[in-house]
Amino acid sequence: MNRVHIKTYGCQMNERDSESVAAGLRARGYAVVDSEADADIVLLNTCSVRDQAEQKAIGKAWELGREDARRAKPRRMLGILGCMAQNRGADLLDRLPDLDLIVGTQKIHRVPDFLDALIAQNRALGPKPATLIDLDAEAGSQNAIRDHGPDRKISAFVSVMQGCDMKCAYCIVPKTRGAERARPMGDIVREVESLAASGTREVTLLGQIVNRYGAREFPVVDGKSPFVQLLERIHAIPGIARIRYTSPHPVAFRDDLAAAHRDLEKLCPQINLPLQAGSDRVLRAMNRAYTVDGYRRIVRKLREARPDLWISSDIIVGFPGETDEDFGQTRAMFEEVGFDMAYVFKYSVRSGTPAEPEGDPVPESVKEERNRVLLELLEKQSLRRHRELVGTDQEILVEGRARKGEGMLEGRTPGGRKTHFAGPERLVGELVRVRITGATVTALSGEVVVAE
Question: Please, is 263 exposed, middle or buried when counting C-beta atoms within 10 Å of its C-beta (0-12, 13-18, 19+)?
Fold first, then answer.
């Protein structure tokens, strides 16, 4: 009963949580397996940001709990972790009565202890034990997501904080992740130093509102926020070649962060800066606490600091009360900024959010059309920007073998664009100059430039 499969839904923070859970399980003697068919225990680490994400996880749990699946593996255990567990709690048992484990976001690092307890009860071979549920908050839980897997990682996620104090009307995250809590700066630096010693070349710093890192815990020094101080300390770590972060909030964006993009060579010219809507009226209804013009000023400062910057964004279409005029303003802003990538979502009601009483008045067909319009624009903008790179030399951090193509490698530009090219496996983990020869909407292709 020690083979565990972890399936992750949602954001990079969930991916990082799952990795840390897997590391803790391995340390306890469990085997983490790639296939649910091989597993004695299946853990679903879930997302609640959108209803679709919850429904996917519930569908998978229902599939694993079907009578025929239970007959095939009568002692297999099934657990739901993370945001959906925190949001729905014991109510999940109404639809999924066979769940063995429900663990919220602040207790996810306790999963090895919970599984040990459940296995001990299972060994008695008596009646099925009651579902183990733990949704309680835990002081210091933000410091528990620090362990990494045994394999060398060219690029690694590093969690720097947990929780969110913003009150965006559509967002469930403050409910599922709790209040903002920052990890000590020294602990983060030591984690990155350890990653660098094991061969990691790139780190991505994670936080719900990452540029608010340490706003409660640490002082501003020489006009620099705690987040910029953290960037500077990581920038000084030998072996780390690239630094990324996600996702900042416009309301917490300061000039010192724009200056960091100018001054810190390792800080990649890439940012995901959520806009959510291009209408001031909708932004007020969303409680986003900035204006379209304020967002425009941030973009201007960033591009002045790094003219080669690549900007992606998050957009919601169909928020309650969004009119055709509002959407037209969002579309215009989408084109004006020229986002290179974007995550476009159709609004869905989340229980417990300020917007829940508004319902979902925008028809699904209207949301579908607005979603389609923005995705078509995105394709054009992404392809145009990619084509501008054809004929240029780009420094690529080689991440590994490409999924397709004999002898092909895969890596990313400083701007985060996926690039494929032929080369020997010894280049994995290296920074390689590649001349871009082709471009599609989603990726680049090229050839290694050999020094004369």
Answer: middle
